[in-house]
Every structure is written in C-alpha cells, then in structure tokens.
Amino acid sequence: MLTNDNGSESLNLVGEEFAVVKILDLDLTVRATNALLNNGIENLKDIILMTENEIANMRGAGRKVKEEIKLALLERGLSFSLISQSEIRKRGRLFSTELALIEAKKNFNKEN
C-alpha cells in the first residue's frame, strides 16, 4: 500500500509489470514500432495509458497501426485507456495512471 497526500492508503497500481515490456518485445511491424518509438512510447505501460484516438492521432500511425497495436493488447488481455491523457491531467495526479491501470488490470484478469 502507498500513502497519498492526505495520509490515507491507496493501492499501489504503478503497473511496473507493464513497464518492463518494451515496444521491441511486442513483435509489431516496423511501421507500428517506429510510430510508437518516434512518439516517445517506449513500453507497454505507455500504450495502455493512451486511448485509441490518441494512438490513431499519433504522427506516423493510422488505422492499420492502431488496429495492430489494439490486437497486440488484446492478445495480452489488455486494452487502451478509456480516459484521455488531457482528461487525466484535468482531474489530477492521483486519478491519473492509477485509473488507467485499474482498467487494464480488470481486462487482464477477465482473460485469466
């Protein structure tokens, strides 16, 4: 457990198990890999914190790249975030990665 700013405990959902899976380990096409890396996406955690629209709107990524990444997530029992990074920033730090990772872990647990 972690303690947040107001002293209460919150579940540690940093998602380090997703951070260790590098983009190059996902067996994506060169186009998809380059689109992710050129946009600063380095690991699986970075992907699951993004929405489908954010992926589709990345420079160098189109419909095919988005679908390929989506399939790679589905194969691992994961999905894109349902909440955009701009919305996360509006709602604050505590809400940020924890909510997106909760959703990813829910989807992962459904598959296992």
TrEMBL record:
Domain spans labelled RNA polymerase alpha subunit C-terminal: 18-73
InterPro entries documented for this protein: RNAP_asu_C
Gene3D superfamilies: 5' to 3' exonuclease, C-terminal subdomain (1.10.150.20)
GO biological process entries: DNA-templated transcription
Gene Ontology MF terms: DNA binding; DNA-directed RNA polymerase activity
Protein name: RNA polymerase alpha subunit C-terminal domain-containing protein
